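Dear colleagues,

For the upcoming journal club I promised to circulate an example of a predicted protein-ligand complex. I picked one with magnesium ion because it came up in last month's discussion. The inputs are reproduced below in full, followed by the predicted structure.
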Amino acid sequence: MINFVKQCAKASLASLLANKTRSFLTMLGIIIGVAAVIIIMSLGAGAQNLIISQIKSFGTNKIGILPGKADSNGPPASALGIVITSLKFEDAQALRNNPNIPHLSGVVAYDNSSETLNYQNASYTTSVQGASGDYFTVEGGDLADGRFFTDAEEQATAHVVVLGDTVKNELFGDSPAVGANIKIRNHIFQVIGVMKKRGTILVQNYDDMVIIPNQTMRKTVLGIDYLNFIRATVDNESNMAETVAEIKEVLRTRHAITDQSGSSDDFNVRNSADALALITTVTNALKFFLAAMAGLSLLVGGIGIMNIMLVAVNERTREIGLRKAVGASNANIILQFLIETIIITTLGGLIGIIVGALISFLASLIIKSLGYDWNFSISPSSVIMALGVSATIGLIFGIYPASKASRLEPVEALRYE
Amino acid sequence: MLIEVKNLVKEYRNEDVITSVLRGLNFEIKKGEFVSIMGPSGSGKSTLMHILGLLDRPTSGVYKFDGRNTENLDDNELAMMRNEKIGFVFQAFNLLPRTNVLENVKLPLLYSKKKIDAETRAKKVLESVGLGHRLEYFTNQISGGEKQRVAIARALVNEPEIIFADEPTGNLDSKSGIQVMEIFQKLNDAGHTIILVTHETATAEYADRIIKIRDGEIVGDEKVHNKRRGDGNGQLK
Ligand SMILES: Nc1ncnc2c1ncn2[C@@H]1O[C@H](COP(=O)(O)OP(=O)(O)OP(=O)(O)O)[C@@H](O)[C@H]1O
Ligand SMILES: [Mg+2]
């Protein structure tokens, strides 16, 4: 039996090699299908890593508190342009250093607005962030020059500003900015610090913005009494669920909400760990969906191979008759043609994997040269899967031609012309 | 008795037309006999050989091979008997294309349950038919006479009890034909049963007995009195 399989495999490999062009054309459908699956899996994994590494560099210990009730998976109300005023500066203060929320390591209250800045004759429009609290704990980053504002300046509604790297360059060029006065909506602000260049993390450009005390933003610039949002951090991701629950409890008490179910909340709390999990799930689903679509072309390739095997059975009718005449059983004939088909599809799969890996690798070189932090990877599981699927397709689409061959009557097969 | 045939009938049905090819044959063949079957073209010789060689089934009648009624054998048992007990030499050689001489002769051993060293056995048989120097040749690189000897070697490789040869000299010149007949003669001398189909009386007379058929019926069954023998050099004695 094992010897028989070996002999069949040897014979069909020899005949495949003897007819290289024909063999290649036979396998083409499988080669293209497998290559497509490999490319999609590889590029998909690369894109996924890019997104996930962005979220990770943003931090998986982040908590966002937004005004208004929202289904935790839907967009926040504020993103839809609805102004909700339920979140106050005092809420942020109540959360900060609260002994009932021991694992909350930092809190920053935010009011943001796009404003035009003026310095002498230069003007530049950027995002002005009224951000107060534990800024560096929550957002990270570093000062390149000067200092950050203090809690005392915050309480005194001081007109001080810290510039992002891009803004500093737009307004001051190479000359020093610290100590200079700029105008925001005709209010004069003193530049006390400049942030180091940091780039974009997720959607936030940390260079194209300036930071002023939240109190100053609300009272002087915007004239409002509510917060856009609060950002906070937990000391450790494992304390996330507990901390979120504690935050909700504190805010419900402050807002006199007795309903603990969450359906009466006028705020909502999100966290980056959940977002990461959600994005991983979504991108995984997308990746496998696309791979499955590409896998459909394998089905077409399989049908092509079945067609060619049916022609081969017809062409080799006399050979089948002869084999039966010298003692081949029906099972021997089935096995021979199945082995041939499986060898064709598996070999096609192997070539497809190599082609797919090569194309993915070239693509990764191109993407890298465009400046993205991109890793080329082919997972062993996708290689094994591709080989398994190819062999299975050979098995499925080989059965019909093989059983047709085995059913030939020896005499009729020998007399066939 | 190796072969027993009673009222053997073979008919072909194509739509409404029934062609009666064998019309009730009766004969027996003993182990070790050398029998020629003669008859005009279309008389049913090949059809009879295919049935006797277990490649085809009769429409009616009884065929006992080696004491077993073949009607009760299933496809697998038939395949095994063809492999172990029967060697077939076809009118049209029927060698595998794009395959060398040695591989062609090894083919029946691929399906054999016996534990034999296929390579050694096939080489030995090829040497015995005088083709030891053609092992690696492809089947399109050898002459017709050599092809027929390859086909004979293939029929012998499993040491069958009986060899069927359907006009083995039909496509050969007289010298190659005589060489082939000498091989059959030696095999018969060594105890193999041989059934041979032929048109030519000269070829038929290598056998002990000639069965003549016409239009699917036996019209003669006689012993050969002056049995012909080759001298072992491809010349007639
Ligand atoms: N599948 C078939 N359907 C109908 N008739 C058939 C079929 N196969 C063979 N025959 C008929 O059976 C008859 C005998 O054929 P067979 O091949 O046995 O002749 P033969 O005696 O071997 O002739 P030859 O000497 O030319 O080889 C022929 O008339 C042929 O037409
Ligand atoms: Mg014939």
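Two points we might discuss: Residues B 12, 14, 19, 21, 39, 41-47 surround adenosine-5'-triphosphate (ligand 1) (CB under 6 Å). The longest helix of chain A spans residues 272-315.

See you all on Thursday,
B. R.
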